[in-house]
Design brief:
Shape of chain B: elongated
Order of helices and strands of chain B: HHEHHEEEE
Largest interface: A-B, 60 and 51 residues
Structural class of chain B: alpha+beta
Oligomer: heterodimer
Strand content of chain B: 25-35%
Number of helices of chain B: 4
Largest sheet of chain B: 5 strands, antiparallel
Distance between the termini of chain B: 95 Å
Number of strands of chain B: 5
Structural class of chain A: alpha+beta
Amino acid sequence: VNAVTTPTPGTDEKVCPFCAETIKAAAIKCRYCQSDLTDEPAPAVEEPADDAVPEETGPEEAGPEEDGTEEDGTEEDGIAPPVATPLVSAGPTPGEARRPRPAAGALTGGSRSFLASGTLAAVLALLLVLAGVGLALLVRHDTSPTDGQAPNGQLTSVPARNAAMAAATQLTQQALSYQWSSLDQDTAAAEKVMTPGFRNQYVAAMGKVHDQTVKNQITLKATAVASSLVSLTPHEVKALVFVNQVTTAKGSSNQRLDQNRIVVTLTRQDGDWHVSKMDAF
Amino acid sequence: VSDLAAPPRGPRSWGWLNAVLALLLVLVVVCVVVLAVQGASALPGSTADEKRAQEYADVKAAARAETNAFLTVDYKNMDPLIAKVLAGSTGDFHSEYDRAKVNLKSIAEESRAESQGTIKSVGIGDIDGNSAIVFVAADSSVLNKDTNGQRKARYYRFQLNMVRKGDSWLTSKLQFVS
């Protein structure tokens, strides 16, 4: 390293334009001639300092400088010019104007040096990996073949659909069937599988026919002759049920047959389906 | 290598790397957000569940269209109506309807029949990849020489057996549920 014998300024040094002494690049006042150096031209943009990545300076600069430039002892990483520097002239030229080395590293280095730093790269890479893992998990979840649920919320698993249809059939038959001799038990059992809102409607409707049913010894028997799903989500069943309802009264050999079309809505409460709506049309 | 003879390598390559990383990060985050909001429908192609849900919609739409065609009668213009029913049918239903079409047309003209269907509800009873049983609740308002100029309401419960032919679902059996 020929730094001791050549006057060429190091990368963190410059030559005072007033007295030609080698001084710290960051200096705003020459320590030899006391000249004010604050009006120096701004460093050329196309020559960014590599101060944020001192480890990138290469093997040539491995040897520490031994000249007197670190007398003040504040900086020990003064970098000697590379060995092969015949092109570098001793005098300062505009092209050689160095950006002042930040006194405390990245703190005063401004945003530009951070944006072009390895620290940012590491942070970005970490975030990228995290986002990639999140994306992979989402893709895996959405393409899971055992999901049984379409993106629009519809359940497609055959067991779930069959169970929902069976529930719709059974609950519709139960709500539409009763016997005068066991009227109170029948309605109480039906109320248990209804949501509070629908239960109120059911109780009101049954209240109107209660006395007539007992008096005329009426029996209603509802049979679902077909059951099908209009829609099915984990929380709601809408089923179209064709119901034949046979009404029998005491002392009458005639039976009345009603062929109903009913859309029954079931909602899940505590894991079980409950009737929340019934539309006959 | 002098740092004047060659462009300063460190800062510039970090800048490029960071720009690329930042761009990738933005892309991945956008993908995550889109996928989180839209679910599997945002992915290219479709999952088995997505295909099935689409199948349900297709089957119901086909059953609705065929029932509507079946209930539509206009004694002044029977041919296109009959053709529409035939176009949505296959198998037994197709051949039965094809055999009956001459009769149907003359009955409609003789009774000056008009009918318009309304689909009330459609449900799927059973479905696999290639066949389905669909139930349809439908009404029609009928006008003919016996209704004294008034439209009469009719109520129906249909069962349609559907089969897949290529991209479309066709009705192979249509019957009333009693």
